[in-house]
Fold each of these.
Amino acid sequence: MVVLQLRFLLVPFLTSVMGAAQYMMQDAALLNYIDRRILSLEKRLEKCNQDILDYVEEFRDFSKMVLSRLAGLNNYKAEVKSEVENLLTRIERAQRDIDYFGSVTDSNTCIEVHEDLVKQQLFEEEEEKKKLKLMLNASCDHMLAGIKSLKVVKKTGDKHGSWMKDPGKKHTKIYLLNGSVNNVILEFANIMTFMESSHILKARRVTLPFPWEGTGHIIYQGFLFYHRYGSLNEIIKFNIQKRNVTDQMLLPGAGRIPAYQLSPSTKIDLAIDEQGLWAIHAELETGGNIVITKINHITMAVEHTWDTSCTSKNAEAAFMACNTLYVVYNLPSGGTSRIQCVYDVLDAVNTYEIPVLHFPKRQGSHSTIHYNPKEKQLFAWGDGSQIIYKLHTKQKV
């Protein structure tokens, strides 16, 4: 009887215990399921976050590429506009000639028209020469006859660079622009300060808003004119004292190939002579020959352009002096620099009778040669050395 009662008591107890165990197992399974779902959601959220980061980075790269291409398109737009305007002018001129010839039927008349056109062309050429002489001041009548001597003023800076005085100012300040890509000008009170061993500490530093490219920059009347780094053919006009950009221009046709084969970093070489600002560069359309352009340094407008017969092959530098281009050549391995191509824009010099002019007492190469019309000297940068060449001149014949 007692055993029977115990059975009746144990059955409900065991049933309740087994039920509780079953509920615990179900809860554990539910918790495990929930945990797995949460882990799955966390992984998906992590992947989504990583995808978002990848998309953001990809969008940034795309934005940089678009901005870069837009900047390039602005340059190409101005260049294409200039070329289209030039093409339209040529088309209009050709159309006038075609219409004129089309109205003439008699062969004799055609011959007379041809002679008239030749006379007209010769007359226009003479008028153009007169205009150029007025613009360039024909009283500039001296030419380079030789390089008398050299003086190595100092050896400082990189292999490539440029140094100069401002021929348009009365002060004696020296400017040093080190490297083929940089944005800091060093200004010295005079050449003695520059020659001191601690000259860097005594220099006034002028930081440009945009770095330069090459070594073809020039300082004139308080302004630095230079080729902007990263642009095809943009020339910047920078006020050194006020430290701001006052103007800029695009030089048509320039910037695609180096101005000189032996100085590949310089696409546009700016120069100063008695007539003001010039640009020297090479073009594919001229077979790599050098092109010179007269620029109005005040308005930054192109005044005239000349295609020369001087090749850029094996050229290392060039300079303008009294309306005349002098191109300096060398060997690719370095040697004695020499002037063996001369081009006078007014045809006042018989270039075929000019002998080859050698630079004295020096083996090496130049990254920059600038003529100073005020002192009638060349300021050159050769393998990290700052050099002054004194010149011997004579009257043009």
Amino acid sequence: MISFKQLPIEAKAAVAAGVVFFSMMLSRSYLAEKLDFRMRRWLLRLQMALFANTLMLMGSLHVWRSTVTTFTRSSAASSFCFMLWKIAVFMFLALAHSSFFTLLFLVAEEPYFFSLAAYTCLGAYIILIFFLFTLGSVEQAYKFLAGRGAKAGTGNKNRTALKPVLAVLLTVVLTVVGLLNASQPPTVNSVEIPVHKLPSTMNNLKVVLLSDIHLGPTVGKTKLAMIVKMVKALKPDITVIVGDLSDAEAKIIRPAVEPLGELDSPLGTYFVTGNHEYYTSDVSNWFELLKSFNIQPLHNENVKIVSPKSTSDWFCLAGVDDIEADVLRYSGHGMDLKKALRGCSSEHAIVLLAHQPIAAKWALQERPDINLILSGHTHGGQIFPLNAGAYLLNPFFVGLYQVGQNTFVYVSPGTMYYGIPMRLGSRAEITEIILRSP
């Protein structure tokens, strides 16, 4: 029987990842009610950072072997330039691995340069792994189809050397493109949506949708102030924030949140939690902070949005807690649609705020009379090649969907980005939704 010491390092990393994952499940199941919020917050974040790093270790070994070990037998291996290259690859991998720990130590009003560099390396790491794997698969397929067997001639050696070079070049180009794309202000996307049973006096009501701002290691006060300025220029009747506003505790990042106090939509500004609010383990303090800025959290509850032209005309705006609260066993929280829609009948239009598209699907299965659901969470995949995974894992990916005759779902691609300051195959968006009365 093979002992742990005899296992290859990749297998050891996989075992370590399994152990960390098991500890996460154990903490969620048996320790959630026994630990105070502060201890739970640190334990959860530490476990997530360790889990991500143990998984990444397998990829990092492959990167090192592909970009460094492959060239150790070449004539350039003893050169000073090759030594610099090894140092660069090591620093790149070290920064990528350290990105997850910045949530524990480097969150402030504005991002630290180290955090931006670390998360940029993480984004480049994901792209590089994809191209190394893809090019390696193409190489193996070529060998198989060409019937070359296992013999390695000069041509094969050249192709083996070409693979990491091409992967690195593609990664550098896409990283620069992604950084430039994400550095641009969010695009304003105007969408007209017919809402069944919306009073005629509320025709053309303007709702501005924000989602996935992710205040934290790489998004700070300056970017939020820019978003608020753009929202105010649109002069919305209602502003809604559908989760993942922040990745940090309210007290730590409070100065960065202050621009939200300038939102002044006449019919109110509303907020529902996303999964990352529960990762902070600080939801109650976030609710209090948002209320101080006249932003109303909808904690499985609803409000009547009354027409400015007629007090007898209104529709029901409801919001549910994110489904991650149930997974984390977050006390007093969890998606409760019945509670959220209490008093909302099909006689009036119903608009629901639910962070995750899967929650939108569940809500429609239970209450098909909901007329409009506004969600986020997917980021439109944020960066290639994660787009494909986000598309496959969510029933609604991005944009407007019609479900049945009188129901629509709109999924925001996100107003900023999570961690990695890059966007590839997606664009940050502030959504201007014009409600139309049929």
Amino acid sequence: MPGLTTFPPFPEGIPTHPLLIVDYQLLRAGNEEEIDKLWKAATALGFCLKNHGVDDEVDEMFDMGRETLALPLEEKMKYEQGDQGFSFGYKAAGVQFMDDNGTRDVTEFLNISKDDALSWPTPFHRTYPSTVDAHMESTIKPFVQKSLTINHFLIDILNDKIGLPKGTLAAFHKAEEASGCTARCIRTPPHLEQSEKNFLNPHTDFGSLSFLHNRLGGLQVLPPGSDKWLYVKPLPGHAICNIGDSLNIFSGGILRSNIHRVVPPPKEQAQYERWSLVYFTRPNDDAVLRALSDQSANIAEAVSKAPPEKYNPGVTAKEWLARRVKAQRVTNYKLRPQGPESWKDRRGTEDIAIVPHIKI
């Protein structure tokens, strides 16, 4: 079995959709052309970020993830998330439903809280397997800190471009405040069947900004105006960044929380375990999700054109996250329910009226 960095290359002849490539170092230097590129990507379909300086930490996080997920299932289940919407800890394969047909998921992952990493060695939310503890100071905490710096800087740029007073969005994303921010390492088994299947059905991300590192293909996006899913080709040294529900709501829909999915890697890549690593930046737990129309004329104009209350869910970031996490669990699943534990209730900001051909 090859190491995490020696998988077969993405095959030729597979239809892909190139994301805009944004240079983080040019953004740091205040390059206006690069800032405009970031803005274009954040209001369209996400982007690839290069020169972010986190490659070493990413490699070490994959090593930590592989070591941890290789533990016996009995040991990993001691740290399972549970069914009440708590998002930190281990998630076993098959404990979530992916669609309203009752299809169970096949992935396992480990969620490590930003708060636990920064408060180490004192637990903030929970404890983790010994393999995590062994890497917390040397690997996990540096990865979290660098990811925080990058995502917060990107959010600051978007704050200014959208016309909000400086620091408005930053106040909702304070590193020292409790939040759902998470470093997630994901393992998906090889896909040896000849049939098509989804590893992760169409969805939007729960939080503000995702910082994703892939080793194999599998991520697919739906380009604006298209009804065809296309692979995003992983690029070495590039992270894939995606706006999530919270920034979509804060901005009144100007910043787009894109629908995406994960399918088996193409061709020979499907024969290998698929690993990915994400840092999810999410707002402070007590941040109320609402369009900031009173602080930006641009947002006020966008909201005026949207259905009433579309960007005012009336919940905190913690409640939004817990609802979406809880509603995915097998234990809470009901095929045709009316209450808050339904499959429909796990949805985010995806707009079926705009993309009616997508089955969520």
